[in-house]
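User: Last request for today: this protein with S-adenosylmethionine, please.
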Amino acid sequence: MKLREIKEGKVKLKIPNVEKSEEGEVFYNPIMTFDRNISTCVADLLPEILNKKRNDIKALDALSATGVRALRYIKESEINTWANDANPKAASLIKKNLKINNIEMKITNEDANIIMRKNKFDFIDIDPFGSPIYFLDSAARSFPKEGFLSITATDTAPLCGTYPKVCLRRYGIESFKPDYYNELGIRILISSMMKMFSRYEISLTPYLSYSRRHYFRVYGKIERGVKRVNREMKEFGYISHCFNCGWRGASLNQKCPICGSKTKFCEIYLGEIQNKTFLNSLKKKMEKRMFVKEKNLIDKIREEVSFSLYYDTHYICKKAGKQIKKIENIIKDLKESGFKASRTHFCPTAIKTNASFEELIKFI
Ligand code: SAM
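Assistant: Here's the final one, the structure of the complex with S-adenosylmethionine:
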């Protein structure tokens, strides 16, 4: 394997010297540096979140590839991290990367599920090709009383309604593709994670959830306790959507109350998917490290109003048979009428608001 050396964050990194990662080769995607920058800032905050001394936190980069995340967690956030990858070429490259950075770290070449079943970790990062779902049962068993989880999902097509049956098989919820498909997709993912953890009386409190390019990323706190899990389950509810007139409601309606057409519906988690206090602390870490683009995303998310399932204004205008109205004007009008409204990072033409579909149509 021909290698070249690059720098990411504060670590030196040997990566395969190829244009595009090939199957069987060690994977490195420079586009994900954005996301790894965010993860490193999250790792900075782990002692506060977990109420533990930095030295006592045990982290796992479960699917490590070049080892870049683990190396950055150690070098930049001083979090004791274990790197694992099932690909033997990856494990041997991680060893090389350790050496050039003068870092000590545990490295294994195993199925991540085995490592998590056999060991306890306070922080687990799961960054697979495709869905993280295959690793979550083992992650649940690996956390002590409290922990923190970060996951990537790149299987956005099933989650966002392009392949509803795949989503049903994989996540236990049949997806559909409304105007708010990105948020529906990430909520299906979160719902499925919560249901999986609830079996072990473990709750998942989302701290940061975002969609970007081809992937979703979710960060959340893990806590054991029946009461928390029961409270979390109360935040589940139905969402019904009419593809004929565009109506949607947070209730189970098999027929649209406006046009009478058959709807699509599913039961998902409708509670908070961001923790604004955490995002304020995260923003400060990003300012300190001068991560401008990453801070811009966090700012957008901080400014979003908390109501679930955004409206794409282009879709709503089309359904209402009206000309597309400027998004700023819709937000202004809604606010002047006493509603809450904001843009959302999920979609550049969308808004979040507590106005119902029927109320929003009036503004448009
Ligand atoms: N986290 C890396 C980063 O930020 O650059 C990228 C990880 S890459 C998307 C997914 C990795 O998972 C690959 O290196 C692959 O070899 C590894 N992998 C796939 N299945 C695995 C399994 N069951 N256990 C451990 N590693 C696995």
